[in-house]
Amino acid sequence: MNYPGYSIPCSKKSFSDLINEYRVHAATRKMQDAAYDHLTLLGIAYESGFNSQSSFNRIFKQITGKSPQEYKNELKKQSPSYNLGSSTRLAPLILRAETSQNWSPEKLNRNLMFRNYFKIAWRNLKRNKGYAAINITGLAVGIAVCMMIFIIIQYQTSFDNFHTKKDRIYRVLTEYYHAETGTVSYGKDVAFPIPKGLKAEFPQIEQVAPIFASQNDHLFILDENGSPKKVFKEQRGLFITSPAFFKVFDFPLLAGSYESLSEPNNVFLTKETAEKYFGDWKLAMGKTIKIQVGGYMFEHGNDVVKVSGVLDNIPANSDFQLKVVVSYGTGFTGDYLAQNTDWDGTVIDYGCYILMPPNTSVTNFNQQLKAFSQRVESSTNRDSHIIQPLNDVHYDTQVGNYSNQTISKSLLNVLWLIAAFILLIACVNFINLSTAQAVNLAKEVGVRKVLGSTRLQLQMQFLTETFLIVISAMVITVAVTVLVLPYVGGLLELSLSFNIFGNPAIIIFLLSLIVIVTALAGFYPSIVLSRFNPINALKSKLSAAPGGGISLRRGLVVFQFVIAQALIIGTFIIVRQMDYFMNQPLGFDKEAVINAPFRVDSVSMSKMEYVKNRLMALNNFKSVTFSSNTPIENGNDTWSSLKFDHAQKEAGFKAITKFADEHYLRTYKLKLIAGRDLKQSNFTQEFLVNESLVKSLGIKNPEDILNKQISIWNGQINCPVVGVVKDFNDRSFRDRVAPLLISTNITMYTQAGIKLATSNFPSTVQSVKAIWEQTFPDMVFDYKFLDEKIGNFYKQENQLSQLYKIFSAIAILLSCLGLYGLASFMAMQRVKEVGIRKVLGASAGSIVYLFSKEFIVLIGIAFAIATPIAWYYMHQWLQDYVYRINISWWIFAAGGLVAVIIALATISFKAVKAAVANPVKSLRSE
């Protein structure tokens, strides 16, 4: 095939080679065509049929001898003599190589010996199919658990690792000081002037990237006349930022220029979003979109923006799940922010990332940053700022991030520990089952020793057998992982994949597991079986070190049940805590309440009363309220400093401020303990407060705060207190009830809370939707149930609970296999004892008891060890929650009882089989 300016020699080529040459040819044409100048090299690669930048660069250079960038640069020089020629030099290919016959007899014997090991091992496994099946199943389950935990941890630790400057990226955190408790907490939100102030104060900072993450945004695709023809709602994914953000982070462009974000009213779409909006991402360039940003009144604007770039799809393992990126300076980030000088207040989801020089001392910079905060903030504000490395962001469960996906490092360590323990349990099973087969293999070992086999050769034989079992288990592990991983990923809401050939770490991990499991599981049995005395073995007088051997096996069973019972007890406690979360009275009514977010502007404000009246006319309808927040939120609250009763200084604490109409208390059934409810008003004229705010002010009697003045927002709002609300949980159970202010202000309402009757619920919701869409035709009716929203606060705990249940079941399953192995061993060791007892008149029940009592003792010892361990770690876990259960004694008793029942059910099979066996068969050799 010939290309303009160069030729490629013809030779035998595969179909794949021809396709790649065609794709390179298409790419070179597009590089020379001015119509494709708006595309980046990655965009041209996608357009030419390549799937990734790495394969494009590699194949392009293989065929042309130059990288795409080199080729494009030389095109710009317009050199007429430019010639792309791939090297025609071929590496010599040896079709047949003669091997010199330098084998010594020792090497030949060694090779034959290894072949013999595998042959005999294979025959042994075929002869003992039941033993092999149990061992392979146990190891496969244990290794599969390790494999899936490894994939989960690898995914969780990969977040935002693909950024080339990741070691120099930091985010700015606000350090909140709580005077009433003397403690500090941290938030990702900062004051509006912070980015500009950092750039001016610290010239060593290379890049400062402000970022605002909006929510509940409407986007209208406009036709040629500027009229909306499609409307989309993005709950999350719309970000407002500057070009500096893309100088800090690596999110490649398919088309356009990063610098276009330096001008207002420009927007980037990701490839996926552009295809959703326009069908083809290449058609998005230059199109106009009308954006209605959600949030509070000051954030709103009907901004018409032009698509100036298309980003490649964002990887799932990034905490920046961008969909729409609006240029900084658009809407409220323009003149409004330029004039804002409030250094004390923070704004929800308004943050800042910075790029620092190499080898920055975080400690020294944080000291400078705190000093800077004290200079620019008011004298009464004791909050400050610090920076946090990017590699800590995904693990900060307290502060959170823009993806709402965090996981603590302690939880990752727990997962590693569970993986190690379950793998150890599987290896212990193998040891117990292998040693239980000792009697069956005794004569074989005796014959081998008589014929001259050494202990090392016998150990190699048994290790080879173990290796075959591990390899077989590994094959099953791969199949189980492929089948089960999508379920686990769905349960945890993670994009997990098992790409054994595209992920070298998985191959290394699997090979490491093969070596470790073979060594752990095969070492002890190989020693035990190879040390048999050949004379005793051939005379069937086997003695497998009754003292130390059985004690070790008993210890291994105790170890298994310590882990299993600790997991069972931990699962019981987690489930009880989750039940406590979901069933504990919150202080308000959450049942049959739906919340519908909306965008407040002059049009929607004028229609609120109309919507309310139409909804009230519906059957099965109870009440509706418009507000800024539901009674309970999880990180979406507005905190305000306040002055009480005309004081000169601010109070030493901050309060959550919620804006709601006069129907708020009635809809959510909040209780007044003093004063009255709010009167109808479109603006802030009076306050309701909760008991916690009264106590924080040092007032004992709630009646004493009535008619006293409270001032917030630097005196912009100054109103009397008209009522005191009984405390209710305004945040998740991780936090104490915070001081709270409630007041009317129609410009701050961002959602409707609709209380419905439980009868004919679906039809009532449809009626509400019809009224909503008729009244607000430009808004998508998107609602959530309040109880589901509260349940999402504890999503990670729910997922942890499910994982613990699975791990507990697996640990019990594997432990029962271990019990079966020990019961089998003891049954074979005591077969003559059982025969004698039966001849002397022992009943089947007494023999079952004889076997069972020893195992009950072992489980009792395991219970005694597991109980304090489980109590300690679950007590530590519960400390993360202000509201938590007490760990009752019956939880431990229930865990122990479950273990005993399962163990008895496991060993009863072997015990009953031994009890009903004919004693003549066991005694006839005597």
The shape is globular
Supply the number of helical segments. 28
Question: Could you give the count of β-strands?
Answer: 26
What radius of gyration results from the CA coordinates? 36 Å
Mean pLDDT level = 81
Distance between the termini: 88 Å
Structural class of the secondary structure composition?
alpha+beta
Characterize the largest beta sheet: strand count, sense, and whether it forms a barrel.
13 strands, mixed
**Secondary structure: helix percent:** 40-55%
Residue windows where pLDDT falls under 50 for at least 5 positions: 1-11, 81-108, 543-550
Beta-strand portion reads: 15-25%
Task: Give the SSE map.
Layout: E1 2-3, E2 6-7, H1 15-32, H2 41-47, H3 53-64, H4 68-77, H5 105-127, H6 129-156, E3 169-178, E4 183-187, H7 194-201, E5 207-213, E6 217-222, E7 228-234, E8 238-241, H8 244-248, E9 253-256, E10 266-270, H9 271-278, E11 288-292, E12 302-311, E13 324-327, H10 335-339, E14 350-355, H11 362-376, E15 384-389, H12 390-393, H13 409-436, H14 438-450, H15 455-492, H16 504-530, H17 534-538, H18 546-583, E16 593-597, H19 602-616, E17 621-627, E18 638-644, E19 654-659, H20 664-668, E20 672-675, E21 687-690, H21 691-696, E22 709-712, E23 717-725, E24 740-743, E25 751-756, H22 761-775, E26 784-785, H23 786-792, H24 795-829, H25 831-839, H26 844-878, H27 889-915, H28 919-923
Parallel strand pairs: 8-13, 10-12, 19-24, 21-23
Antiparallel strand pairs: 1-2, 3-4, 3-14, 3-15, 5-8, 5-14, 6-7, 6-11, 9-12, 10-13, 11-12, 16-25, 16-26, 17-25, 18-19, 18-22, 20-23, 21-24, 22-23
